[in-house]
Every structure is written in structure tokens, then in C-alpha cells.
## 1
Amino acid sequence: EVNISCSVGIALYPDGCEPNKLIARADAAMYAAKRSGGSKHCFYSPDMDAAAQANFEMVRELRHAIAHDQLELYYQPKVDTRSGKFTAAEALVRWRHPQRGWVLPGEFLPVLESMGLMRELGRQVFEMAARQQAAWCAAGHRLQLSVNLSPSEFADTNLLDTLQLCLARTACPPQALELEITESMLMGGDDRPMRTLQALRALGLSIALDDFGTGYSNLAYLQRFAFDTLKIDRSFVQAPEAERPLTAAILGLCRALGLRPVAEGVETSGQHQWLQGLGVQEFQGYLFSRPLPPQQFEALLPVPG
Ligand code: C2E
Ligand code: MG
Ligand code: MG
């Protein structure tokens, strides 16, 4: 069962409006409808310009941030419970805002994505991660680092060239990197996503399916796209008792397809023990560590050798 909703923004012409402002006004009205809960319509009113202005301001600041290296990566360890050691990590972007302090990706990535600015940030993120990983490899650390890809990056026809260039520039071994994508990026009916994944694989990169269970969870995709890792979304990891059989079934599916499951968002030792009992070996979540700045993360790594 799929529930969809629709928010409508309405702007009137002429009503004191220049023709070239009409779409922007309808857009501002639509965002107002979404902000007030969605599934409704809103007529444009001048106070909505303030919200649009705030959005505009954020985009301006983000452009500045991208150009002036105000974006940083935090690293969240993934623990392998066979050895009890941190053997992998996920790179997560953070924005160090001069006035507001640290801003989380949930606040600014959707703005970048909707403004078509995500590719530049994505390139920067990948290059930062590759550079850091090259340094860790050179220091003798053996850990796999995963980097998230956004929908527009995945759809970008220059993606392969961009990544290849970053890998060459940073001298990072591609085998030490994994890309996390989400299911919605694979939909669309044509074979482009498949070809992109094959080409990424051919570069030597591993592929993880992120947030599994939150989208359409198309089982045919799991077979067809041959991922290396399946990240079980935290809604399944934190599932109430009654919904736990579903999580167990997903893990059975992983085993049958030869996928490596990683449990995301593990917060309690109860969740950890339950999933370990179901055969999960890799865990990521606040129970083990929050995402950390590089120096703090490094201090947790096993001594190389
Ligand atoms: P994600 O890829 O699923 O990343 C996991 C998110 O869950 C991170 O949030 C992480 O801090 C959070 N998390 C980890 N453990 C726990 C836990 O035990 N409990 C709870 N409640 N949360 C936990 P974060 O860093 O705010 O990132 C949110 C999302 O933004 C990410 O979800 C990813 O989709 C996106 N994102 C983050 N960094 C990047 C990036 O560099 N590029 C792209 N394209 N997307 C990114
Ligand atoms: Mg992820
Ligand atoms: Mg996730």
C-alpha cells in the first residue's frame, strides 16, 4: 500500500505580479503548504517571500561554504563483532557555519539537491573521503570507507569521470572505498542505473544499498543489481517486538543472496544482541560511536600491523 500526498501552491496573475515572478510565487506557496503539514493548497502571500528569502540565503551561504572549504567529513565507525574492532566507517558531511555552528546534512542537502547544486558538493565530499582514506591506507590501516551518493550525483553522466579523477588525484585505492546508494535511484525502467553500477564496480568500488526497507524494497532489484552490502535501515533495527520477524526475514534474504548485512542505527545492547543472534556481524550506531571528526575517529582505530 502506497500513500501519496500532494501540496499545491497557487499564484495569481496579474494581481500585482510580474509574469517572471509567477513560478517563484507558486513555488513559495507550495513550500508554505508543505511547511504547514502538506496535503493542502496555499495561495501566495507576500510574507512567504521571507521564507523564500531564507532559502535563497541558505543557497548563497552554501555556495560560499562549498567554495571555501567549510564542509567537513565526520566518520562513523562500523564495528565487526567477530573481532570487536572498528573495521569500516561511513563518511558523513557536516557544515561548519560561521554563526550557526555545525549544521546537519538533513537541513542542507535537500536544499542543494532541489537547487541542482548537489554535484559540486558530492565531488568535494568524495575527494575529501578519498584523500583521507589514502592517508589511512598509507599509515597501514585496513578499513573500508563508505561515501553516500545523492540521486543527482548518481544520475550525472560525468559521475565516472569525476570519481576516476578524484581517485587518481588522491592516489586512493578504489578497493578501499564503497559507495552507498538508495533504492529510489535505481528506478526508472531503463538500463542506465545498471550500467552505472557496473561501471562503478569496474573502477574497483564496492556498492552498498543504503536505508534498505524504507523505499519500495523491490526484491527483484536485490538480485539484479548484485550489491556488496545491504544496510538494514534503523527502522528495522529499532523495530518493536511485533515487527521483528520482518527484520529476520530480510536477513534471511541477505544470506540467500550472498549480501553482507550491516545494521544501521543500533542504539541499545538489546538490539545488538538480537541481531547478532540472527547472524549480523557488522554494526553501526550510537551504541558503538557517534560520527566523529577525523582525529577522534583515528584514535579508535586498531593499531596497524
Ligand atoms: P545515512 O546515509 O543513512 O546515514 C546514517 C545517518 O544516521 C547519519 O545521519 C548518522 O549520524 C545517523 N545515525 C547513526 N547512528 C545512529 C543511531 O544509532 N541512531 C540514530 N537515530 N541515528 C544514527 P546524518 O549524518 O545526519 O546524515 C543523514 C543523511 O544525510 C544520511 O543518511 C545520508 O543519506 C545523507 N548524507 C550524509 N552525508 C552525506 C554526504 O556526504 N553525501 C550525500 N550525498 N548524502 C549524505
Ligand atoms: Mg549512508
Ligand atoms: Mg542509512
## 2
Amino acid sequence: MTMSALGEPCVLLKLGEVVLKGNNRELFERSLQANIKAAVKDLDFKVDLRQRHGVIALFLPEGSGVERADAVAERVGHVPGLVWIHRAWRVAKDPSAVTKAAIELLADREDVRRGVSFAVRSRRRDKRFPLTSMQLDRSVGGELNDIYGLPVDLKNPELVVSIEVDRDEVFVFTGGQPGQGGLPVGTSGRGLVLMSGGIDSPVAAYRMMRRGLRVDFLHFSGIPFTTSESIYKAYALVKALDKFQGRSRLWVVPFGKAQQSIKASGQDRLAVIAQRRLMLKTAEEVARRLRAGALITGDSLGQVSSQTLQNITAQDDAVDLPILRPLIGLDKTEIMAEARRIGTLEISELPDEDCCTLLAPRRAETAAKIADLKQIERRLDAEELAVQLAGSLQEYKLEG
Ligand code: ATP
Ligand code: MG
């Protein structure tokens, strides 16, 4: 059905907050374009990107079928910065071609046979078109009504036929899928995610990518006192998250020995926070090497004893870099729903031997005093230890 009155299949993208940018807009658009191109790069056909006013059109090689438009839409559906993805038909800039395409678009649809209510919604990004938007709505709507006998409902239509007149062509489509929203990855700089194998940190990573941060992932494994399971999990999580930014990197620090020293320092109740501070100090050193400007964690206020206000304060005190906690105000059920939607929940729920189980005190401190923590750190020589740990960093490369 490719070469019918419908014209050529293509994909039409609506930009999100990028359109609010004033002087920086071009920078954001360029970044978004690069991310879109990267997301479709390994498809086995060429995708031609055209920036239009406020939208981006993705054209396919001549004669392409709808499966190609589907494949492209699936990829760009994960790219932050887009609010809508439409599988559209690209039609000649001529009213009768548009009408024909709209008629063809509704043929063979189950809901049309059922007699759904409908409306035509036209918009002109090129005002030189011979018909105004309202004239287009009426004339195409009238034809569709004649042919299919569908009731028009301008307020609450079950089916919307969209017509968008552009510079060189007209796009005709129904429906669409919501995009990720947010800002293009890279436009907010770079961050380092502290990535456990749990449910929260992958969601935190997603949230910050969606605000334009390109993120690296840092995982602390209990090696040599645990198996490599937690690394495989972190790896699988990073792979699942890679669709949102591409070129993701996973870094692993073997942390078991450092944990043993913390345990040996005897302050059982402070062990968890002392360990978290050492992770943060190490992460700060890694961030410096990677030129990342922020650390990101999956903390949510009050979720566990290490995430009380006092303990969060004690963690912030350990480093100079800002610690971003995008989940701070979310409930566990909300975090889980998002984890399910972005495809990380199943992986997070796999069993593993987290490094943190090595130090599970009978009763964890909920209001750690910074002075006490600093005392432990002096004995450990924590600053030096953090530099050493950062030096033992290993990269786990993502394979295709
Ligand atoms: P998550 O589900 O992300 O594991 P959690 O509810 O289990 O979170 P904690 O174990 O207290 O919470 O960890 C809080 C945050 O500390 C995590 O979200 C993560 O950012 C960081 N973190 C914890 N363990 C590790 C680890 N082994 N490697 C890297 N970061 C970690
Ligand atoms: Mg955890």
C-alpha cells in the first residue's frame, strides 16, 4: 500500500521544552538532531533528518514501507527532548492530494467501520497554502463524512485526522505516541550516577538524562568478598538505560576491602553512612577524571535509615560536588512504576549479593554525627583511600 494516494511514510517529531529556549535554541536543536541521528544510525537504511519550524521530520528512502517508519518511531521514542512521535504520510502540497490521502488513511480501519466520531485538525506552518486551516478542516472533513458517514465531533472526537502543512510537503496522520519529554541529553552537561543493582538508582539516572545530563555509571562491587553478580546486574541495567542516551559507560570499583576496613574500625552503627561517604568521596574523584559536574543517587527521603535528613546531610558533607537526588520526594510505588515503564524493574528485581549486605549492622544510626564520621575517616585515611579506590576503576564496555 506504499505508493498509493497516501504518499511516503515518514516520522514527524514534536519538540518539548526546546521550543522555550530563546537564544540557546539553536544549540538545543543541534544537540537533539545529533541524538536523533545517533539513535537511528545502526538501522539498515538511511534516515534523512529535516529541521522544520518547531518540528523535525524524518524521511525514509523512497519506496520504504511502514515497517521502517515503525522502527524509526520505536528508536526516537526513547530520545529525551521529544514530546510526540507521529507516523505520518508525506503528501504533495496540493489540497486534492491531501484529501485523497486522508480518505485512504481511514480505509480498512476497524474503528471507522464501527462509526467512530472524528474531527480534522489542520495546522499551517507555511501560510502560502491556498486553503486556510479552517477551510482545510471543512473540506477534508466534509469528504470523509460523505465517504465514511462518520459523525463529526469537534470537542471530543474519538479519531483525529491531523493535517500539517509544511514548507515543502503536507503531513497527514492519525494518533501518535508520547515521547520522553525533557531536554536533549548533553545540553545540561555530564553527571556520574552511583549505580547499585537496586530499583532506585536506574530510575534516578533516567530522570537526570531526561533533564539533559549525559551520565556515566559507577558501581561499587563487594569483590573480592562477593561474586561478580552485582556487576552483571549493573551491566544489564546500564544496557537497558542506554537507549535513552547512547554510548553509555559503566565503571566498577572493587570495594570489598575498603568495606572490611570500615567494619574493622568498630563503629557498627555508623558503618553504613561511613561506607556511603567513602563511596561518595571515591565517586567525586572519579567524576573529576571524567569531567562530570555532579553525582547522582537514588535516595528517597526516609526510605531507609541511611536516607533520613540527618544522614543525607552527613553525606552531602563528604564531598564538594552537588549530589543530585531526583527521587527524593517520590514514594517507592511511584519509583517502581517508573522502573517498570523504562524497562529496568525486572533486572533490578533479580537476586544478587549486594556489596552493602556485607555491612548490615543490627541497628543502623539514623542521625549520624559528622564529627564521629570524620573521626572514623581519619583513622581510615579516607581521602587517600578514595584516591586509591578511584585508581582501581575498571571500565566494562557495552557490547552491541
Ligand atoms: P537502590 O534501589 O538504587 O539500590 P536503595 O533503596 O537500595 O537504592 P541504598 O542501598 O541506601 O538505597 O542506596 C542509596 C543510593 O546509594 C543508591 O540509590 C545508589 O545511588 C547508591 N548506592 C548504593 N549502593 C551502591 C553500590 N553498590 N554502587 C553504587 N552506588 C550505590
Ligand atoms: Mg541498594
## 3
Amino acid sequence: MRKKVIAGNWKMNNDIVQTTELINGLKSLIVSANAEVIVCPPYTSLATAQQLLVNSSIKLGAQDVSLYDNGAYTGEVSVSMLKSVGCSYVIVGHSERRQYHHETNEIINQKAKKVLAGGMLPIICVGETLEEREKNITDQVLTTQVKGVLAGLSAVDVERSIVAYEPVWAIGTGKTATKEQAEEAHKVIRNVITQLYSTAVSEKVVIQYGGSVKGDNAKELLSQPNIDGALVGGACLKADSFASIITAA
Ligand code: PEP
């Protein structure tokens, strides 16, 4: 039985004061959760969040990481830096990184490998654009992305990784995939992992859905057999709305 994993991607939101308020709000609302709960603040808030989360079951994640270990890479943050600030998870390949920073499946694959080698777990994002869905090529797109981002990963590493299915047209738009659309895409992703590895491996992989998840749609999405959690953007910025998604899980 796979555990539900709910992760909040704060994106470029929340200074230190707001971070403190949000984390304290979450701690008071999420006293005991059946799901694994992860918050992914911006880099500047990670140290504050880490201190506030001591003795909490809420885990800390980052939104991205550098491909490099150290040196002359202005503005970049390395795997060991994230590890030292208390991160257990790192989101890689979010569609906003693919779109605005031209990240390819190959780059995302390298980042996922670095995160795993550094003792953290990647949340690896895949998902089709609206144009691709309308052309009826969603399955091919997901297949190519999953093969690309997992290339060369061992079965053990894949089992520990999280894959987030995030249809680009549903991110931040208020348009959620229907539970049938989401379940279908999750099945495609799990089948690709079965082909690449085995049923035993694919049955262990947590596949999250992301795209306008809110308290009022979380339950029906999360009750689908292949949807093992949610990657949440907008609705994770308020403690009560994030907590309502966690309760639904
Ligand atoms: C996201 O950015 O990963 C996301 C799912 O955002 P939202 O929940 O706002 O659609």
C-alpha cells in the first residue's frame, strides 16, 4: 500500500515573516496526518523553515537544485547545500523550469540523479501542454518524458523517487484534470515504469497529481487507485487550504 504524499510548492512566495506565519499555522493545523507532508519554500526561507520544523513530522523540500557541486555558478544552489539546510526532497523539472529555464528531460534526469546521490529524494515532474492534449499525444509525451527523466536510474532509486504528473494546462489556471483524465495519465506513467523496470517497482512508486488541487477537489482525485498524492501550488500558500488537502488524503 503506497503512502499518500502531499507536497506544497511555494514557488517565489513568502519572505521570512510570511514563512514563519505559514509554517506555524501548518504546525497547529496538522497535528497528526496519515499522509507524508512536505513544504518546499524558496531557498531564502529554507533555514527558517528548517528551524521551525524541528520536532515536526512535516518534511522540507527545495524547488530546484544546481547540476553542479560547487564553484563559479552564480545564483545556483547545490545538492550538499540543500542537504545541509535540512531538505529531504527536491522538486526537479517543474514545468515552470522547463518553460522559463529551458530544462530538458536530460537535465532533469541529471538533477534527479544528483539529488539521489546526495541522500535526498527527487519529486520529478512530467506533464503535457494543452496543445499536446488537444493533438491526442498525451500518452506519447508522458512516455517520452518518463523514459527521459528516469534514464539510467536503478530500480531502487526509482522506487524511492516521486513522480508528479502535472498537466501544464492545469497549473495555476484553476482548471483541474478530471479524476478520469488524471487517473488515465497516472496509469500511463505507471505502465511505462513497469515496462522499464517491473511491476514490483512500479507498484512502489508514488505518483502525485498536480494542477489546481484544492480542498474541494482533493478527495475525488486522491481516491483514484493510481493517484498517490498531490503537488500543490496556489492552495499551499494558506495554512487552512493546504491542511484541507492533507485532511482529504
Ligand atoms: C504547481 O505549480 O506545481 C501547481 C500544481 O500549481 P497549482 O496548484 O497552483 O496549479
## 4
Amino acid sequence: MKKTNFLIKTAETDNVAIVTSIEGIQEGSMLEDALISKEFIPMGHKIALNELPKNSPIIRYGQIIGYAAQHIQPGEWVHEGKMSLPRPPELKDIPFSSKLTAETPPLEGYTFQGYRNPDGSVGTKNVLGISTSVQCVAGLTQYVVKKIKEELLPSYPNVDDVVALNHTYGCGVAIDAPAAMVPIKTIQNIAANPNFGGEVMVIGLGCEKLRPERIMEPHPKKQPEKSSILYMQDPAFQGFQQMVDASLELAKQHLQRLNERKRETCPASELVVGMQCGGSDAFSGLTANPAAGFAADLIVRAGGRVMFSEVTEVRDAIHLLVPRASDASVAQALIDEMKWYDDYLLHGEADRSANTTPGNKKGGLSTIVEKALGSIAKSGTSPIVDVLSPGEKIRKKGLSFAATPAGDFVCGTLQLAAGMNVHLFMTGRGTPYGLSMVPVIKISSNTSLSQRWFDLIDLDAGQIASGDKTVEEMGWELFHLILEVASGRKKVAADVLGIHNDLVLFNPGPLT
Ligand code: CA
């Protein structure tokens, strides 16, 4: 990465650079190599370093991010209005590679204080999660959660929280359609997230298509006492209050066991870190995502599990990911997930140019290709050892690709189901994203955001763009922060403020 006071160039062959100064660059500014800006260019946006004839490639990260839609002079602002979009890489043309990334030395001696579960997983929080089989019961669960917080939680000091795992699935859906397995598996696997300590409490209605018993299916049958179901339509209940009282009685049994959980020293290999970004800008691929990628490599070296996601944000960079697959079957699985999503988008007549968002564009990201190249920086350099379909649980140690939509809440929900115990969220434009089940560490790609949102952002990776820190230093800082957060010693901004988002299921199946 070549940096002057005003510009960052990401690769030697790039013919555009990114403006780093918060005020942007004024028209007529003298820049490096006798380059003079032809117009005002805002922070995060691109300046042409060379003459770019019409239809010539525009190169950032050493890759084609678009083509000049008109003749562009050196010093001009290169934005989406002057660019045309390249086609995504043809999936059938991507070569598999049998040569793996060089083995990196294991990283030993790093630990965190976690809650060890009977199934071997480790929690970073101690939470009672109340699952639901259908949206009809959302009112009761919210009512019950409020009462538990007020009346029961004070008696169980080791329990951090109680959360309603509400969603909009469960009825009015084609429950046996093949695609229904995605939301069903997601609901089943969220109940098994390590932060819930193996306790599964389900509130159901009684007549819904998704049977509450089905949510229990994948849970170990050895400890039936750790699972409970309440049906609102149970004829024993005379009125709402009796349902509330019965729910509180069930909750008490789970809370008693959760209250016995104690943090113990666990190796960093028990981390399961989910990574995604939201509200990205042109700095995301220079600062926050590379720092996350460095931390991801450290976690992999420590024997932990890391996943990155967001199919539409890696699709245009898939030719760089497939060669990193650990074997041909993983490479094929990556391609299959891309193909599935291509068909899904085609079926819905998705408009490819609608990603990037207006905020991405304002932040300097002109095309989805540019966004994708910045997005995959968070995957670091480790081999990709496994590919998860939406709703699946993470299987292997190392770096996995969990196929999910890119929408923050859907991606976060699927990574929860995959079993993450820490969530990294990189943002450039700023989003207040948070989850109550798992700590979300929010990392800003630019210092301007972390200064304005001083109480919403946990780490300022903008220090890389200003030259105050290297990617490596920031990556280590993030790694240590992950261990602190996983240990409960440091609370993330979203938890301090108590602001959390809803679960949003990915349901590619039909509604009825
Ligand atoms: Ca996202």
C-alpha cells in the first residue's frame, strides 16, 4: 500500500488512488508525481492517476473494478457516473488450485474466560434464549422476557440476560418445500448457540406448521430436562396470566442451571468468530477489513474457527477465493453456493447495479466489484477449509465461508445459527448494529466516523489510513480486544447502550 498525505494506492498497477483527507481534495491541488486535481474530490473517492481512454479498464487492488464510460483525464474524479460495470467472473472458468497457502506457525498461549458447555462448545455470554415456533407467540414471549428481567434475573446473578428469539417464520409457509430447510435449520441451530448453554426453552402456539418439537430435534436427547415446550393453546390455561405464570416457572428451571455456569480459562482455539461488514466505504478494504483479516489469520493460527459470508459481496472476487480452497470439494462447494445465489437473484430479476447502496457510493465505492475486492480482505490469507450452506453449523477449525445474503441482520442471524460466539462488524458509513445473543465488536474504517460515533464504535481502524498504525498492529489490537470481549472483561458499545437488532431469517421458500 503506497500512501502520501492525501492519496492511497492499493496496488502498483492501480490507475486510480483513494483520497484520504477528511476535507477531500480541492480543485487545482498539487499532488504526487505532478498530478493536479481537476475538480473537488471527496474523502474516500477515487482520482485518476493516468489518462483513461473510453472503455479502458479502471484498476484498483490490481483488479478491474469497471471500465471508463467516457474519456477521463489524470486528476479527474472517477465515480460510478463515469464507469461501466464489468461482468462477474464466469463460474465455470475458475481454475481449482491444488497448491495451498504456505503453512503458518501455530499461535500458542492465548486464552479467554469462557463458559464451557457439555457438547464441547464454549460460550462468551450466559444467556437464556427463549425460542419460538411461530410469530403468533411473539407478544407473549416479549411480555415474559420483560417480566423475567424484572422479577427473576436479579436472583440469578450469573445469568447475563434473557432474550426472545422471535422471528416471522412458522406458519403460512410451504413447510415441506426443499428451501424451507434453510429457516428451519436456522431456528434449530440458533437454539444451540454456545451462549445459551444447551438450555432450550420453546414457546409455541399449538396449531402452527413448524412444530416446537422440531426445534428440539438436533439437541442432545441425553438431557431432556434441559428442554421445555409451552403451548399457548394448551387447554389447561385459563387466560393469558396463566400462560405467563407457566412460562416463568419453566424459565426458572433453565435459569437455575444457567446460574451454575462459571467462566473458566479456555484456549483461543475455542473462539468461533463471525465476520461481516455493513455500510462499507472506500476505506473498508484498506483499513477495517484488512485488520479483521489479519486478526482472522491469528485466530486460525491459534486453532480457532472463523467465518466470513455475504455471497453477493464476494461473488465478483470469487476468482481470488476459489484458489484458496483447501481441496477440490471445497472449491466446488464455493462455486455451487455462488451458482445457487446467481440463480436466486436471476429468478427475482435482481438489479446488479443496485448493489452498491447510495451510502456505499457516497463513501466512494463505485461498483460491486470494488466493494467485493474490499470485502474479501476480511478473510485474511488462510486456506478456506469448509463452505456452509445457509443455516448450517460450523464444522471445522480454520477459515470457513458461510454462504449468506449480505443484509446485516440476515447474515448475523445465519452466523448465530452457525455457532459464532463473537461477531466482528466492519463499517465505514456507520451502522448501530448489535445483537443481544453474542457480543458484536464494531470496527470503523475511518477515524471521522469513530470520532462522531465515539460511543457506538469499538475500534478505529482508520488509524491505518492516517498512517498511525499498520494493518498488523491494528490486527493484533483487534485480536486482543476479541479475547477481552469473549472473556466478558470488556463490554462492546452495543451492549453498554443496550441497543440490539432483531433476528431476520433467510427464507428462500414459498409463503402460502
Ligand atoms: Ca452485511
